[in-house]
Amino acid sequence: MSRLPDKSGRSILITGATGAIGAALAEIYAQHGVTLHLQGRNAVKLAEVAERCRLKGAHVLMQCLDLRDSVALQDGLKVLEPLDLVIVNAGMNTHVGSAGESELLDEVEALLDVNLKAAMVIVHAVLPSMRMRGSGQIAFVSSLAAYFGLPVTPAYCASKAGLKAYGEALRSYCQIWCIENQAATCFRSPFCLTPLTNLTPCITSANNL
Ligand SMILES: NC(=O)c1ccc[n+]([C@@H]2O[C@H](COP(=O)([O-])OP(=O)(O)OC[C@H]3O[C@@H](n4cnc5c(N)ncnc54)[C@H](OP(=O)(O)O)[C@@H]3O)[C@@H](O)[C@H]2O)c1
């Protein structure tokens, strides 16, 4: 696991800022001199997180959008440049059914759009400017699930393994262009109980199988 990025970035984008980890990261990075761009779908939660960050001195701008909408995401990113640090944190989970049924295909597709495709859309939007400036950092929030497939969340594990591989490849790719600040960092969050990891009904049923 790589080091967490430092606070040197003055313009920072955090996706999934309405969630448990995203909101915590936003508050960690909130300080005078920092512009925080916070993304999420839940406008009420986004405003609450933004207010807490403003109280810590940060300049905060909000973007309420659905990451599955690539066009809206690309349009949103265009107005944010240049960014010093991008934390690709938003994620969703799916699970097998309570009687052991396969994951629902539409949920799997949505998961891949949020956990993997949106990360790539973001990279395509922000990397050219980082390359021109020769500095910048993109951090991907992967998971321990990238290292070992868990039986109740197959698609989630695949998406996080894909994200980990993408981040590793990107780091080597960026070194070719001499982008400073460890251009792509992939870190795995330790397990914590959040809406995303609340699989209690499914785990209970799996234990009963
Ligand atoms: N919790 C853990 O133990 C754990 C462990 C390893 C890795 N992670 C990773 O850490 C990251 C954050 O997880 P968390 O535990 O903080 O989960 P969380 O509280 O459920 O937060 C998920 C965040 O992703 C956003 N999101 C989901 N679907 C979206 C969409 N279609 N468009 C835009 N935003 C969307 C949510 O926004 P809205 O609520 O506004 O829709 C929310 O801000 C995820 O990538 C997760 O895989 C978590």
Q: Could you walk me through the main structural features you see in this protein, from its secondary elements to its overall organization?
A:
By secondary structure, the protein is α/β, with parallel strands linked by helices. The chain has a domain at 65-203: Rossmann fold. The protein is 44% helix and 16% strand. It contains 6 helices and 6 strands; from the N terminus they run E-H-E-H-E-H-E-H-E-H-E-H. The chain has helices at 20-29, 43-55, 70-78, 105-133, 154-176, 200-208; strands at 11-14, 35-40, 59-64, 85-88, 137-143, 184-189. A 6-stranded parallel beta sheet has the order 3-2-1-4-5-6, with helices on both faces. The chain is globular and about 50 Å long. The N and C termini lie far apart (35 Å). The model is unreliable at 1-5 and 204-209 (pLDDT under 50). The site of NADP nicotinamide-adenine-dinucleotide phosphate has 26 residues, from helix 1 and strand 5.
Discrete helix count: 6
Query: What is the percentage of strand-forming residues?
Result: 15-25%
Could you name the CATH class of the domain at 65-203? Answer: Alpha Beta
The multimeric state of the shown protein is single chain
* CATH topology name of the domain at 65-203: Rossmann fold
C-alpha end-to-end distance: 35 Å
Q: Which segments are poorly predicted (pLDDT under 50) over 5 or more consecutive residues?
A: 1-5, 204-209
Which word captures the global form? Answer: globular
> Radius of gyration, Cα only, in angstroms?
17 Å
CATH architecture assignment name of the domain at 65-203:
3-Layer(aba) Sandwich
Distinct ligand kinds: NADP nicotinamide-adenine-dinucleotide phosphate
Q: Name the CATH superfamily classification of the domain at 65-203.
A: NAD(P)-binding Rossmann-like Domain
The count of strands amounts to 6
Largest beta sheet: strand ordering: 3-2-1-4-5-6
